[in-house]
Structure formats: C-alpha cells, structure tokens
Amino acid sequence: MIYKYDFLVIGSGVAGMSYALKIARAHKGKICIICKTTLDEANTRFAQGGVASVTNLSVDNFEKHIEDTMIAGDFISDRKAVEQVVYNAPAQIEEFCKWGVHFDKNKDGNFDLHREGGHSEFRILHHADDTGAEIQRGMMEALRNTHTIEIKENHFAVEIITQHHLGVEVTRRTPDIECYGAYVLNPDTGKVDTYLSKVTLMCTGGCGAVYHTTTNPVISTGDGVAMVYRAKGTVQDMEFVQFHPTALYNPDEMRPAYLITEAMRGYGGILRLPNGDSFMEKYDERKSLAPRDIVARAIDKEMKTHGLDHVCLDVTHKDAEETKKHFPNIYQKCLSLGIDITKEYIPVRPAAHYMCGGIKVDLNAQSSISRLYAIGECSCTGLHGGNRLASNSLIEAIVYADAAAKHCLQHIDEYTFNDNIPEWNDEGTMTNEEKVLITQSVKEVGQCMSNYVGIVRSDLRLKRAWDRLDLLYEETEALFKRVTASKEICELRNMINVGYLITRQAIERKECRGLHYTIDYPLHAYDE
C-alpha cells in the first residue's frame, strides 16, 4: 500500500503531539502520526519530576537558568540552543495550559515550584509526582479532538526513504540527501507499506532499552537515531548517556525500573548507605543536589566499595503528610513493596535514563537530511551538552516542536511527493521461526552495554563492547535479509546500531567529560 501525507510524524510523545497540534492549527494539509504501540505509551508518560521554566521573576531569571544548564552540561552545550529553550519556555508553558495540562498551584494561585539537582532556584512546574502522565493525558485529549490528524497505532517505522531507494549511492559525504517518507510495518497485514510525505518529523524518543536496567519503557530502542544513521544522517554526542541516580531497587522490576524523581532530593531527601551514613558530602559541596552525573558516579562507587546492590534515599525526617501529598504515587508504589517511605529508607540505584545525544539538528530542528526534522530525546539540539539538567527535556521538546512547525510551514509549499519510490521488496524472505535468536541477542546487547559502556568506562571495556556488538551486527543483518520484517528483528537492528554509536563515540572522546567518565582519561582536557 502507498499512503501520502503532507506531514508524517514518527513518534507520539510530547514532541510529536505538540508538533502535530501546532501544524494542524495553522495548515489544512494531511497529518499522520505513526505510533509504535499505543498513543499513550511514550517516555513522556514516565516523566515524574516536571518542566523547567523561569516563572517566578521575583527571585529567578533567564540568565540563572542558562548558567545552570551550561554548568550541568559541562560547558559542551550550544549556548544558542540553551538560550532558545530558556527564553521560549514560558510561552510554551502557556501553550501546555491551553491544551488542558494542569500544573499544581499553591494557595496564592501561583505555580507550586520544585527545585531539582543542578538548579539554583525553584523553577520546576509539576503535577504531583506524575507530571509526564498529566502532560500526555492533556495532549492526547487535544489530539483526539483534532480531526485533521490521523493516528496509526501499533505501526512500526522500518526505514526512512531517501535517494538510496531510487538506486543512488548515498554516503556520509553525499550532499543534499532528501527524505521522501518512510517504510512502515502494518501489524494487521504483516506487510511493509510506503508512506510518502512532503515533510517527515522524527520524534521516536530515547534508547534506554539498549541497557539491561533502565527507567525507559522497553519500546525505547533508539529507532529514530538508528534509522537516520543508516540513511547517512549526522548523529552526535551519543557517548553522553544519562543514568538516573535514583531508580527504585527492585530485582523483579528492572525493565523499566521505577523512577524515584529527583524532586524528592530537592524536597530534602538525603542519600545514605543502608547503615545510615550519608556520603554525598565526599563528592560534591551540593551533596544530594549535585547534578545527575556526579550523583550517579558517587552511588556507583559506594556500591562497588561496599559490595552493595543499592544505596538508600531518606525522607523520614520530613513531615509524613507533606511527603504523601507531594509524592503520592511514589508513596503508594513503595508501600506496595512493603516500604513506608515516611518511616523507612527507599532502596535506590542508578539506571539508564536519558540520551543527551542523537540526531544532530539546528535551531529549526532540521537534521542534516533535507525535509527531515527531529525533536525530543532522539534529537541532539545542543541544549544538554555533556549532561542534561533535570527537567529540561520536556520543555526542550515543546520549544523545538514550535521551531520545527514554524519552519515546516514556511517551506512546505516548496516540496512535492516523490512518486518514483519503489514499494518495499520482501521477495525471497521467509517467516522467522528462530525468534530465540532475536530474544537472546537482545539480552546480549543489554548485558554488553551495562557491563562495558555504563557509568564508568575504560578503553578495554569499550573495545570489548565494540567486538561483541560487531559480531551481533553481522549475525543480525544476515538474519534480517533472510526473514520478513517484524517489529522484533527491526528493534534488535536498531539497538545494535545505537549501542555501536554510543560505544564508538565514547572511544573517540579521549577525556572525562560530563556523563562520559573513563578511568583511562581521568582529567578534563582543559585541566591538564
């Protein structure tokens, strides 16, 4: 089957939904959203903490937020990108509210602001401790009330379409690569359909599932990054994988691991060893409110030093009723495991959480491939640099959605459909009866990445990961050519591609910087 849409959106989190809503408001063209599963299953839904924006001008200002972001990013961040997000954040918060998203307010009617690690002021807007779920709810409701947007749930984008599919040799040095749409797997027919578009937006979220333990849903397999890399697009800063310091330690629940929001440390939570000793004062003067890379490395070291499976987060010194009020979902979750957080420590440990790198884009969210935009976690805007400042991701997604929508609308009339694109060729392939090969390889990728490309790295570990991934790549590509396309084999290909990119770019960075910490280069290049 061949479908045609003016705007093709691959992904359904806050980035894709806000972009589609902005386009629909300003243009009568056909819009299609491709959802890998259902509309509500996106990384957005799992975000607990909130959205960072300067709203209390009596104590806060844009320069403080910019400086906090630059410091957290280890000064690798693109200052123009940081300024674009920070200055445009308040207007996009208003947009959230217009779409029906509710943020908590205090008795004076002002936003009830939290503070999180790395922030110098209270500037985190939130909805209790399930902000992402509230944003997803409000935007889904707005989306379903917009009848010009077609939503294709449980469809899987296999590849983006470029000149390569017209028989042109495309390399990383090819100028003017163009995107004409995507090949998409239809779950009802099992066939790969052709989706032609004038403009394609990639917003497929993160890649935490390439690690054994992650706070991301299992669908976060880095699909967008892998597709664009295979299409010879530019991918950058993949070595900067953020591990959230405080995922709930529960051996029966590791994919995804339940997140204990950073706002709990902003609230006054203290990191301790199980015996009650605090330890963050040994690593940073900001103690438990240090940026995530510092806290995650500190926890990792304490666990290894003392032979522990976890450390603890202590809020027992806080008012019990206030704790229940601010963190109702965390309270109930822990209670279901027999832990009363008002009286007992919360067992926590780091887990893969967020990709700071991704598809390289400019200030208009344009990738290196013409007619292809990328926003949200799959993109690399330059905002995060070497380490994402807490709660900057949701606001980045909607600010860049706005920039992408405005730029697309200015240029959409310049593009036409390319009707010469061939349909997907699966001639000679067979149904895959060897699914054990896929499931075992998925496990191997997770173990390889967690053991060798985790919080602390070395040249030897990275080389071992490279060798293992190379073998998995050869095996999987051979299998992919033999069998009909399925979600499982495509996800595995993407995971291996993303694991390779993280490893390769980690090998190339010969220094410790931000989230990339290696024992072979223990100092910043500018400290030497």
Give the secondary structure arrangement, pairings included:
Elements: E1 2-10, H1 14-26, E2 31-34, H2 43-46, E3 51-52, H3 62-72, H4 79-98, E4 124-125, H5 131-144, E5 149-152, E6 156-161, E7 181-185, E8 192-202, H6 223-230, E9 235-236, E10 241-248, H7 263-266, E11 270-272, H8 292-306, E12 311-314, H9 320-326, H10 328-336, E13 346-355, E14 358-360, E15 372-374, E16 379-380, H11 393-411, H12 435-452, H13 459-482, H14 487-508
Parallel strand pairs: 1-2, 1-8, 2-5, 8-15, 14-16
Antiparallel strand pairs: 3-4, 6-7, 7-8, 9-14, 10-13, 11-12, 12-13
Helix pairs in contact: 1-5, 1-11, 3-4, 4-11, 6-14, 9-10, 12-13, 12-14, 13-14
Summarize the structure.
With 528 residues, the protein is an alpha/beta fold. It contains 14 helices and 16 strands.
Describe this structure in words.
With 528 residues, the chain is α/β, with parallel strands linked by helices. 36% of the residues lie in helices and 15% in strands. It contains 14 helices and 16 strands. The strands form four sheets. Strands 1, 2, 5, 6, 7, 8 and 15 form a seven-stranded mixed β-sheet that branches. Helix 12 (435-452) packs parallel to helix 14 and helix 13 runs antiparallel to helix 14 (487-508). The chain is globular and about 65 Å long.
H/I helix tally: 14
The count of strands amounts to 16
What is the straight-line distance between the termini?
59 Å
Low-confidence stretches: 524-528
